[in-house]
Amino acid sequence: MEEAPRQLTFTQADNKGKDDLVDVSGHPPVNPEGYSIYSNIKDGKASIEHQIEINGKFVVVHIVDLFDVQSNKEISLEEVMDGLRYVMVYRIKGGRFPSLDYDIMKRLADGLLMNMGNSGKKGRFGGGTALTEEADVAFQLFGEFMLEVQEFRQAVGEKSVSDLRHALKLDVRCGSGSTEQEQQAAVALIALLTTNYPQFADWKELVKHEGHGNVQKCMQEHADYVKAETMPEIGGVILAPQALCFDRRIKRVLKMYRTSLQTGLPLEAIPALQEHYGRNVLPQPPKTSIYRMLWTQFTDFMILLLLAVAVLMAATQDFIPMTVLLIVVVLNAIIGFTQEYKAGKALDALTKLSVPKAQVLRDGATSMVNSEELVPGDVVILEEGESIPADLRLAEVSQLEIIESILTGESVAVAKDPKEIRTLTRKLPIGDCKGNAFMSTVVAKGRGKGIVVRTGRLTEMGKISAAITGHAKVLTPIQKKLALLGKLLVVFAIVLCAVMAGIMIGYHHPTGESLKVALSLAVSVIPEGLVAVVTVTMALGVRRMAARKAIVRTLPAVETLGSVTFICSDKTGTLTEGKMGAAELWTSDGVTYGFTESTSLDPNKGDVTLKIDSGDTPQVLGKTLDKVPAQMLISLMVSSLCNNSSVVQKEDDEHEQMPIDTPDKNKDAALSASVPGAVEWKGIGDPTEVALVVAAQKAGFPKTFFHELGYTRIYEQAFDSERKVMSVAYKAPLNTSSTAGEHYEFVLAKGAPEEILNRCVGYLPTVTPGFLGSPLDVLKPSQAELTQPITEGYHDHVSEASGRMADGGLRVLGLAYKKVLVNGGGAVDNDLGDGLDKFNNMKDRKEAAPESHKPTEVELLTAANVNDDDDDDEEENVPPGYAESDLIFLGLIGLIDPARAGVKESVRICKDAGITVVMITGDHIKTASAIAMELGILEEGGRAIKGEELDLLSEQAIAELKPFPNVFARVSPDNKLKLVTALQSRGESVAMTGDGVNDAPAIKAANVGVAMGIAGTDITKQAADIVLANDNFNTIVEAVEEGRRVFDNILKFIVYLLSCNCAEIFLFLLCSIVNVELPFTVTMILWANIIADVPPAMALGVEPAEPGLMSRHPRSPKKGILTYTSVGIIIFQSMAMMLMTFGVYMWADRSASHLDYAHAEAFTFLTTLQLLQGFLSRTMRTSVFRVNFFGNRWMLYGVLLSFVLMLIGIYTPGFNHILNLVPVYGLTWAKVVVGCIILTFLSEMEKIVLRRTGWTI
Questions:
Q1: How far, in Å, CA of 247 to CA of 256, rounded?
Q2: In what residue span(s) does the Cation-transporting P-type ATPase N-terminal domain sit (predicted)?
């Protein structure tokens, strides 16, 4: 019998009587094989599925993917948890398998954390506090895997404290509504985490602030009952992992890295730390020497092919064609070298990002050290103008502003704040990491002191460098196809040469002459102008795309764009305008308002309208106090004053920026009249807050309107991603004519609708007109109660309005206010009320505490005192009146980033062209889905997923998603790279857009990387194949059309060149087989190839696009450049020209005295047919009579030039003797005309067949 597995002192997790499933007594289950239901789940690498070897036998443990369980109807989350519980109790517990695959354990930890917070009973806005039984099982499994599996413990140790705080929900498990078992499990897990991980030593960081009391009480009640078992000790000092620590307080960071702000690290500890963490250097990109780049250009297969042809021509003493070929080879090498050199600039730019020296504090002394020697825990001093040497957690700042454009593309310096950021995830956008400084960014202003928390390859720049250097750029489809075509042509030439020589020798022709003719014929197989024409065609495509605002950095990318099957596009600024604007305001009395010209930053444009019925014209509201409802005014007042952004106007670089909301209302007009030129408006701050400021200005109530009334901000609680609320407190004089200084105070708050509403106790209903002297009197102390209490029905009413706005693609914010009791402003007599006066009085008393009181400044924490219990910064106390509670609900405001004009049509074009468009955004999934549906990207039955769900999937699982998602929301740059590789693994050709340096790896890995020209960083642009000068999705679609045109034209001239050359080959073979004199001499063959190949083929490279080009599906990257259909076309066209020429030649007098004329006549006939074929090749399916005759004037010039050169070779005395030609006369030209008519008829018949069959060329 198996030994009873040890427990985490947890009781039975499920209370449904499933003792046969989770038997804590140790008895094996009735079914020793476990759950057979999992055996048919196809999950590949996506699921946590592996094999464990026990006693020489493989036990297959099926652990179903925790992410896909919601979409898989064949299995439930309950069954998944039961299966995992079985594996734990009967296969792992008791030390039977202490080590498992790390990647699997990491994904298991992510999946358990994701599911242990599920709520069974829905509350307002879908929330709730009753955890499901499956959530409790996930919580228990999390602790048991920590006890048993080393790799699981390692994965947990790499989690951020904010991730654990959000997922574990310890405040809920210890709350009043929790069960005894949940409380015991919570305390046990707290003991495990705090005992075994130094970074989680403070249990308070694992619990939301408001739940500290409940958790502490719970720990006291269950202290004797729950005992955490210790884990295997790790030898030596456990050093903190490298992480940004933006969610950790400074003292905690100091303790984690065993350092001090006053003395830094001890010098004697540096070598050991360097050995553990490694040196602070970026991964070095592989460098290719200039000579290697040049050598590569000449070892390309097509170039070797041309060089071989040049050698053959030299062997036949045809030096002029040989010279032309060598010039083509050199030009192609120069172009290829230039492109490769430019592409290498992205890697070169990375090597310039390291910082040579850093000012570091060690052993209490400041010194300049080599930045390579920095280790986590070093204290770096920052001065204005210096570059950041590593990723830092800022500890002290003095007006510190850092330019992070190299990472974010945003040129405005970012003001830094060392305060910790409470967040739900460790993947905070770089621009939001106010408490961090990143390697290679630059201090623009101020000074500061920071703790090194990440070095070398783990820094943000190190990750980007490793990603860029680690993904080799694959050959483009056209490069692969041309290489394959070249190899096939070489094989064909060798076979042809052998066959031709064998036939001629078999007919007893001289061996030397036979070999010379065979070599010359082999030369005809190879299209000498192919490489030159391909290069020129793509170069001309680059010029045309540049005119359409698409800058191409690598020539092959032009053609590759034409074969893309997926376009993965950023939403903001590419699919949308990138300008946030207020679209709708819904107030607490149920009235809806709209905004005109909402995205225009000009406050003089646009109005607020009252939305009535859909068929009626909206009513424009006035812009004075007596013409606006109280709910609307106070709502827009919150938008304007609970806000740190502004809008400025600027004429040009010589004029200073001036806030729009200036007290002088005539200043706008005066400025416009005095300074010529258009006014430029610019938002300063977060785009969402800028939109709120503009909304209030369009209503006629800017910030200065309220400032003139004496409104003064006295307190602020900044927004953070955990509270999801921002609030400010203002004071205003009770009577502007009074000198007594009496005032009243109020709080304005905005944030996530559910968070705002859950903090509200009442709402502002309709106010009877005339009841108040001014709408602003709502905020003043009053005996009359204007508000109504919030009921469950009103909650549902607001929820419905919020859902409707979100479904419309709006980003919805809730708005609220409350009055604050203050002395003289409504408070009880002889009391200071709940405002700032009382708070300051309390603070003064606190600061007068005895000397034994703990100091408020940062304490000295070094390696010697890391066990000091006082490792918390002082909590910020909020005045009771300013707490974000007991609010009065005002309404909801919806913001939108409108879709760009023409994008919807471009998406439709993509669908018609067989291209799937995928939206990638950091927005909320509901907002992203609404915009995607508006644009036609997401259709009924389509799929949208979040980045955190993408993290749980392997590349194989992503590739197998059905239906494949069209929207990826809340994604990180890592998700982008994962998405690219997953799509490529299933044979897709992917175009990926991006702007920041973080996007560079995904852009480089994509088949076509597209960088934003306006918002993109230099490194991103250098890693990309194409740069959009206008950041517009429509430009991508136009570039795809241009790419298809380029490939079509390349295919046209390849078919044309091979048709012409094969006509000559078949003609020679037929003549050899029937043993007649060959129709051309070697010199004639080479002259025909020169005049008939290059000029018309070059002209085909600029042929306009055929109708219906974007109605075809993308050409499969797996298909060769020639399909069975195109090979059939080549054979048909070449046989037609060959048979007619053979007939003319056999009809001619071939006696010894007239043989030269017969040769000349055959030469003239075939060459003219080849030139006509060039003109007929302008279209592959469409009738040549349906295209504009003058639509490609270069074809007219090319054919005319070739025809003139042919006439020169025939009729110019002396020169025609060199070519073995003689003048031809009228009957010959009559034969030529007849031949041209027949060829045109056959060409039209061929195109009719292609149109009707729909065969892929």
A1: 13
A2: 244-318
List, in sequence order, every residue forming a beta bridge with 450; answer none if it has no partner.
Answer: 380, 394
DSSP-assigned states of every residue in 1143-1164: HHHHHS--STTTHHHHHHHHHH
**Residue 394 is inside which H or E element, if any?**
strand 391-403
Q: Residue 499: in which H helix or E strand, if any?
A: helix 477-506
This prediction's pTM:
0.62
Going from the C-alpha of 1199 to that of each of 525, 647, 796, 1179, 1236, the distances in angstroms are: 21, 61, 76, 16, 14
Q: Are strands 990-994 and 1008-1012 parallel, antiparallel or unpaired?
A: parallel
Torsion of CA 954, 959, 963, 969, to 10 degrees: 60
DSSP symbols for 1074-1118: TT---SS-HHHHHHHHHHHHHHHHHHHTTPPPPTTGGGSPPPPTT
Lookup: tokens for 385: 């103008």
261 vs 448, 857, 1105, CA distance in Å? Answer: 11, 11, 67
* Residue 852: predicted pLDDT: 33
More confident of the two residues 916 and 829: 916
Task: Give the bridge partners for 454, in sequence order.
Answer: 391
Per the DSSP assignment, residues forming a β-bridge with 820 are 745
User: Residue 1229 gets which letter from DSSP?
Assistant: H
User: CA 488 → CA 8, 969, 1116, distances in Å?
Assistant: 68, 46, 20
Q: Map residue 69 onto helix, strand or coil.
A: helix
Q: Please answer whether residues 1195 and 1099 qualify as being in contact, where contact means their C-beta atoms are separated by less than 8 angstroms.
A: yes
Half-sphere exposure of 667 (CA within 13 A, CB side): 10
Query: Could you give the C-alpha distances from 958 to 762, 945, 980, 998, 1243, in angstroms and in order?
Result: 47, 11, 10, 21, 47
* DSSP calls for 739-775: -S--EEEEEEEEE-HHHHHHTEEEE--PPPTTSSSSG
* Residue-wise pLDDT tens digits, 1179-1222: 888 888 888 888 888 899 989 999 999 999 999 998 888 888 89
Residues annotated catalytic, as ranges: 570
Cα–Cα separations (whole angstroms), residue 127 to 123, 124, 754 = 5, 6, 9
Residue 517 to residues 1042, 1073, 1142, Cα–Cα distance (Å): 42, 14, 18
* Residue 817 host element (H or E): strand 811-820
CA distances from 1065 to 360, 502, 527, 1137, 1236 (A): 77, 15, 13, 11, 20
Residue 997: CB atoms within 10 Å: 32
What is the band of 658 on the pLDDT scale with cuts at 50, 70, 90? very low
What is the Cβ-side half-sphere exposure of residue 35, based on CA atoms within 13 angstroms? 22
Instruction: Name the residue with tokens 């990826």.
Output: 968
Compute the distance between CA of residue 180 and CA of residue 951 in angstroms, rounded to an integer. Answer: 34
What's residue 671's pLDDT? 38
Closest CA to 1141 of 1211, 1090, 1069, 1246: 1069
Does residue 16 sit in helix, strand or coil? coil
- What average pLDDT score do residues 561-571 get? 88
How many Å separate Cα 131 from the centre of its chain? 35
| Separation between Cα atoms, residue 346 and residue 285, nearest integer Å | 10
* Beta-bridge partner residues of 728: 716, 748
CA distance 236 to 993: 46
- In this predicted model, what pLDDT tens digit does every residue of 889-941 receive, in sequence order? 999 999 988 888 888 898 999 999 899 999 988 777 888 888 899 899 998 88
- Kindly report, residue by residue over 455-465, the tens digit of the pLDDT: 988 888 888 77
Chain centroid to CA 859? 42
DSSP assignment string, 235-303: SS--PPPP---TTS-HHHHHHHTT--TTT-B-GGGHHHHHHHH--S-PPPPP---HHHHHHHHHHSHHH
Separation of alpha carbons 806 and 793, rounded Å: 20
Q: Which residues of 135-155 are buried (b: 16+ CB within 10 A; e: fewer)?
A: bbbbbbbbbbbbbbbbbbbeb
Helices (H), 964-1032: 973-985, 1000-1005, 1018-1023
Q: How many CB atoms lie within 10 A of CB 850?
A: 5
